[in-house]
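Page 37, continued from 36.
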């Protein structure tokens, strides 16, 4: 069973897609959101949840004060679950907040290739079997969509190698939780061009 941990929708039970998804454990979600709240990275943030599954990460951010959350999920059954979960979270939301939750039923790479929005906070929880080359393509396409000072939290198997980080994404730290590794990254600003004299 997956629940929203805190915020206006705290303790709300979320549906899960079942086969083919791997929900982030409550322990790992608590660690993620404790770290984000310590950095004051959620309030009014524009949040992107890639490989959303049930949408639990993005919806947790919504409950804690994000202004816009986009859940991206290719599976039709998981997309339907994301829409259902988003609707029940929105029903709990304060009417004055203007929270938007949008669900996109599309492969992550296709979404990143076509979407031009920028994001303050991004979650990526791809299937553990996703290949490193495909992950790098995702990260390369995501990098220009990260706002200045944006954060990325990437969840992988602790047995997976460290991802290749493209220009525009800089690793801050790695944190292990049993079989799960969180890679915390930030948007890296391009170097200033040298001025000719």
């Amino acid at each position: 069973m997956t629940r929203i941990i805190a915020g206006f929708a705290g303790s709300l039970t979320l549906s899960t897609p079942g086969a083919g998804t791997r929900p982030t454990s409550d322990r790992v979600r608590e660690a993620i959101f404790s770290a984000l709240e310590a950095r004051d990275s959620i309030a009014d943030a524009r949040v992107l949840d890639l490989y959303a599954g049930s949408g639990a990460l993005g919806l947790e951010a919504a409950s804690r004060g994000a202004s816009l959350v986009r859940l991206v999920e290719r599976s039709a059954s998981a997309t339907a679950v994301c829409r259902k979960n988003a609707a029940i979270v929105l029903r709990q939301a304060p009417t004055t907040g203007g929270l938007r939750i949008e669900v996109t039923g599309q492969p992550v790479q296709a979404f990143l290739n076509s979407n031009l929005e920028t994001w303050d906070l991004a979650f990526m929880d791809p299937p553990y079997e996703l290949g490193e080359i495909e992950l790098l393509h995702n990260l390369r396409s995501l990098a220009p969509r990260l706002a200045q000072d944006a954060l990325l939290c990437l969840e992988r198997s602790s047995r997976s190698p460290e991802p290749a980080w493209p220009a525009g994404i800089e690793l801050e730290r790695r944190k292990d939780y049993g079989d799960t590794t969180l890679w915390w990254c930030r948007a890296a600003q391009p170097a200033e061009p040298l001025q000719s004299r």
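The radius of gyration is 16 Å. Flag for discussion at group meeting. Residues 191-197 have pLDDT under 50 and may be disordered.
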